[in-house]
Structure formats: structure tokens, C-alpha cells
């Protein structure tokens, strides 16, 4: 998880024990966080440095992926089998939802009309859909992963949406004004119920299915042969990448410190 006050990214065992910092340098306002569970990489957004970065789950092999034309990047979500990442930017002048490959290449703008504060994002990987919640329009919407076929899912009693997650047939979200975690059916917006009540200042959330690993890609086996980062791209055309200060050798897999000139 990200901790803005500590200016750190931290981790712990699922029972809360063994807490430790994994990233503490060049962290200003860490916000959204997502795990590539196949390549075992961690992605995060930082609204202070205006960057999207990646590292291994233990914090090593850190690399900046995107550092241009980001103003207030917040939520981030990954599709490791498809080789894509998606993120929101809630800046006042040009709020937007974007997509790129997991190595930051082939970046495209998906949504930039009729959104104001896109706070949360969640993916329905089986149906190739992106869901997002907007704290100003007070809606949860959905579209295809190329930005087409946009529609509203829920539009009532969503006073200040923040976090959004999807598991199975249900969307889960947090709301600052209702001080709750709610859920509803991802297709109809029906079957709505409050999961947790009276929780002040609740921010991000993740719905997870423990012990179940879905999908595969070339990074699963031996990190794709990469010495540092294995970053998948569409069509499983993965690339190896290196942490800051290293470069790939001719085999395109091994990272070394470049020779001084």
C-alpha cells in the first residue's frame, strides 16, 4: 500500500504482521497502486513527482515508466495477460483516463469528455471492460478497453466516490460522505448493499480472491529470462527492462551498469 504521510510504499503479510517499507526514496505523494501478479511487479502513481513507476514486489529494480503529461495521476489497474495498464488523472483542466503497454509504450487517451474527478478504476478482464468512478459527476461508468461503448452503471446515491474494485460479478467502492464500502452488480447496478458502515476517511480498496491465480504470460516462467524486470505487452511480446542506472546488454535480457566512457 501507499502511505502519503510516511512518503513510502509499504507491505505486510495478510494478517498485518511483518510490516516493512519497500520504497522510500523519491516518493512525494504516492497514490494508486497495482500488482502484476504474473510477473510479480508493483506499479504505482505519484501525484507529487507526476510519475508512474514499476518495481519488483520487494522494491528492487525500480524504473520510471511515464513522466510526461501527468498532472494528478491517481488510480491504476493492470491487465497482465493483455499487456496493458490503465490509469486516471483528475487534474482540473484536462481530467482523463489513459492506457499504455505495461512498459509504458503505446500510450493512448481513452476518455476525456464528461469526467471531472475520476478517482477509482477497475477492470473486468474476462469481458475486456474498464470501470471508473467519478467523485464530481457522482457516477460509476464502464466502457470497452479501447474507450468505446461507454455507459453509466450506477448514478444514484454516490455522494463522494473514491476507491473502486471488481471481483466476480460485483463492483465494490468506498464513499467519503457515506463513510461506507458498498457493492452492486457490475452489469445492472442492482443488488446493491452496504458491506461496511461508519468508516471515516476510507480511501482505496481491493477485492481479492485468495489463493486463486488467473491467467499466464511469458513473465511467469523464470521472469521471462530477464535479470531485472519482465514487462508484458499485447500479444505476449514482452520486453526485459532495467532499473535506473542500468542498461540491457545485447541479449536484451541481462541488465548491467554501463561502462564509463
Could you describe the 3D structure shown?
With 261 residues, the protein is mostly beta strands. It folds into two domains: 1-194, Neuraminidase (6 Propeller), CATH 2.120.10; 220-254, Laminin, CATH 2.10.25.10. It has no helices and 23 strands. It has strands spanning 2-3, 8-11, 20-23, 30-36, 41-46, 51-56, 63-66, 73-79, 84-89, 96-101, 108-111, 118-124, 129-134, 139-144, 151-154, 161-167, 170-175, 180-185, 193-196, 229-231, 239-241, 247-248, 255-256. The strands form seven sheets. Strands 4-5-6-7 form a four-stranded antiparallel β-sheet, with no helix packed on it. It starts with a strand and ends in a 5-residue tail after the last strand. The model has no long low-confidence stretch (mean pLDDT 96).
List keywords for this structure.
single chain, 0% helix, mainly beta, Laminin, four-stranded antiparallel sheet, EGF-like domain, Neuraminidase, 6-blade_b-propeller_TolB-like, 261 residues
Indicate the radius of gyration in whole angstroms: 18 Å
CATH A-level architecture of the largest domain: 6 Propeller
Biggest sheet: strands side by side, in what order? 4-5-6-7
Average residue-wise pLDDT: 96
Contiguous helical run count:
0
Structural class: mainly beta
Report, as a whole number of angstroms, the end-to-end distance.
40 Å
Number of β-strand runs: 23
Order of helices and strands: EEEEEEEEEEEEEEEEEEEEEEE
Instruction: Please report the first level of CATH classification, the CATH class of the largest domain.
Output: Mainly Beta
